[in-house]
Amino acid sequence: MKLSGPAHGRACEVCRKVYKSMSDTKRLTAADLFEPKPQNWGLRGDPYLWEDMKKNFSSVTLPVSTEVFIEKFRAGFEEITGMPLTQDCHPLVPEYSGGGMSAGQVSGRFWLNEALPLLLERLKSVCSEDSDKIIPSETEQDIIVQTQRLYLRKIRRNDKLAISRILQDEKVMYAWEHDFSDDEVIDWIEQNLMRYQRDGYSYWAVIEKNTGDLVGLCGLLFEKAGEETNVGVGYIFGKSFWHMGYAYESASACVDYAFRVLGVDQVTAQIRPNNHSSIKVAEKLGMTVRSQFVKRYRGKDMVHLLYSIEKETETCMRRKFCMAVPLWLHVKVRTTSDFRQYHGNARRTEMAAGMNFAIGRMLNDYEKIFK
Length: 371
Known about the structure:
Layout: H1 5-23, H2 46-56, H3 66-81, H4 108-129, H5 138-142, E1 143-146, E2 150-153, H6 160-167, H7 182-198, E3 203-208, E4 214-225, E5 228-237, H8 246-262, E6 266-271, H9 276-284, E7 288-297, E8 300-310, H10 313-324, H11 336-353, H12 357-369
Antiparallel strand pairs: 1-2, 2-3, 3-4, 4-5, 6-8, 7-8
Helix pairs in contact: 1-4, 2-3, 6-7, 11-12
């Protein structure tokens, strides 16, 4: 269930009042964000998983950054259900079974599209109520991802001057075939702020750690390419920061964020054929050309190449493995060493249980992925 408009505002206000009164008597934990429960669920196992996830967060004291909360959320889901959280997963948890259709199953789509946004909105509401008790530092709160040399944070309105230096440089904007006016820069910033509210992501400001300077713009966009819609990565950097590897470094972090946090199966990039620098970055990311389409921009038809990359084969195969084998064989496999350490026990368990030879064949296929 998603709330919007006045109803959404009233719900947030109620949450703030409840958490404010709670914080007067005890230290808040992330488990407090799980009350009240949603009114609607995806599948029958979701209410039970909600309670287990709540217990899982009882040791997490607020304040906590959004990124840490999401990491804990995804890890908790996988720990309890035995499967990574994706849009299409429907793990069956025997402890939640009570008879009937879909008994014991939980909906990955509900947890990604409904539960996580609801909890993040409550986290935001709590943090905005009492800054001296709850809100983390401004920088920590806004940071989305970090790399060795950079961090990406949400764009702010007071970034206008730094962003103008990029979007008003005709050499930087050659693929767009125009540089921006002051009003267009303001509109561009506002569009990104709107997308944060609507999608949860958009272009982010790329900050150089050593200097604190805004050196570029990079992020994820929910965008159309012909008749299809994808989550794509985009990047624009000031000319002074070209040929330093910043575009690849930040774009790579964004692609990883899309796979790891958003749970998407592929990320795309829309690039003009003459934008050779962006093409090099896309190819270094492992992207390949999937199609060509025409985008109309400022009254002109512009040919674009659609590059794409799918989630790592290893991750996809691990998901298929988890969905195919019986629940008793579900394992917490995150790395090569995890799998090999578990492999011997899984073999013995299989033989002891007298399971059919097909499971053994599946284990053989799965092991090949890690060789």
